[in-house]
Structures are given as C-alpha cells and as structure tokens.
Amino acid sequence: MQLEIGSVHEGRVKGITQYGAFVEISAADETGAVRTVTGMVHISEVSDSFVRDIHEHLQEQDSVRVKVLAYTPEGRLSLSIRKAAEQTAAEPHGEQSGGRSPKPRRQAKPYVYEPKKTVPQSEMSFEDKLRHFTQQSEEKRCELRRGNERRGGSRGGSARGNRKS
Q1: For 63-104, what is each residue's pLDDT tens digit?
Q2: Of the chain's two ends, which shows fewer C-beta atoms within 10 Å, N or C?
Q3: Element spanning 11, H or E
Q4: What is the pLDDT of residues 2-12, one digit of tens each?
Q5: Is 39 exposed, middle or buried (0-12, 13-18, 19+ CB in 10 A)?
Q6: How does 71-84 read in b/e, with b if 16+ C-beta sit within 10 Å?
Q7: Which one is the CATH code of 4-90: 2.40.280.10, 2.40.50.140, 3.30.70.260, 1.10.150.750?
C-alpha cells in the first residue's frame, strides 16, 4: 500500500492507550481499491499543549484529521493530529489584502514510501559485500556495548575492587 508522507486524512479513533491513540484511516492502494489502515498517534502528537491524560482530548470513535508522518518498513504508520491542525490553519482562506493575487507555489513531488529492494549477495560487488558486513558488524558492536552498559560497566570489575592497599 502506498501512502504519501505529509498527506492529511480523516480517521476514526479505534483505541486509546496511555502513550497514544490508534486511528483507522481509509486509503487507496496502487490498484485503486480503498482499504482501511490503522496507525498510531503518539501522545506528544495529539495537541500543542502538554497532554497528561489522553482521554481529556480523545474518545474512542471520535472523528479526527491526521497527517501521515512516517511509514516504516515493518508496516507501522505514524500519524499526527497536531501537525494536521497546523497545516489546516496555515492554508490560505480567501484573498490576500492589497488586491494582489497570491504567487503560485511550486508543488514538491510527494514522498511515497516504497520499501528498499534487497539485492541478493550473489549479485553484490565486493565493495557492496564489504560495506554490508561492516554495517552489520558495527550494529552488533553497538548492541553488545549497550548490553554491557546496562549490566553495570566493564567485565574487569569495579576499579575499587581491583585496588591494592
């Protein structure tokens, strides 16, 4: 399914959690068929003001306008009510003062999410294989380093325990 990043849709709140709300929107896929997709509005994207309790702003089955922020390769859809309201408020509502017509804005090509096509290793060049290996190694090193930091530091023990008096 292709969703344009930055597009605004009407949706219906299907569920509310302590960290956000799940909103169901209808969108057309590449064949033209209309399908419903569920995305999440994080609590920080509900309103411009601080939201302590999301139930003060939203209820299940509420109709809301949402803006598509991101569409991850895992299929998660990130939405924003706050940015949809900002975009709606920023749109011109009639003629400008001075009698001059507004300058036509050049429309940027919309960003449409398309997953990266993975190239099989048999078709990769040596440089591509080396770059892929280096990236995977660095990711594994970072994960191991994070795991050590969570457990409480280095493997050699604490500096206080290794000191001789």
Answers
A1: 999 998 888 777 788 899 988 887 777 665 544 444 444 555
A2: C
A3: strand 8-17
A4: 578 888 888 99
A5: buried
A6: beeeeebbbbbbbb
A7: 2.40.50.140
